[in-house]
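Subject: Predicted fold for YchF C-terminal domain-containing protein, 179 residues

User T.R. writes:
Posting the sequence so we have a shared reference for the thread.
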Amino acid sequence: ARSALSGIGGVTLGDDFLSQLITAKPVVVLANVSPEDAATGNAFSERLAAHIASSEEAAEAEAANLRAAVAGSKASDNPPAGMLAARRCVVVSAPLEAEVSQLDDEEFRLEYLESYGMKDGLRALPRVLAESQSLLGLVSYLTVGEQEARAWFVPKGSRAAEAAGAIHSDFTKNFEQAD
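User M.O. replies:
I've generated the structure tokens; pasting them so everyone works from the same file.
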């Protein structure tokens, strides 16, 4: 595959421009394996992970070339390091996940997953969400009320007042302190 960035010359390439390119978007690839391979993957998922790692290195090299090409631009116009290299591979077993989703007994569900080598009963969805959150540079915090529990996502490094603003803009204005 050829990157959308190759062959662009004499153009000011700022973060706004780069963020619109599909090649600049983070990617989580799911390697669907048999239930027996759910815990460790198999030869194909290992090859896929290796391919993703090598394409991540190639994308990083392309980003370095792009930064060099726009070296005459303002520093703020240069793409951030690693922007084009955000790729991860997560091994999942859709058949196993489908079976487990039908089980009502939590204790049996954990035993069943452990019989396939899934320690701590860690299912695919939490792993996919954690990888996605990491790639996007987000952290989450929870709020719990009488009627709902909700996760809020904010950029890593956000201050407490900014995080509170994710719920409502008035919280940012009137924020006093966090413990």
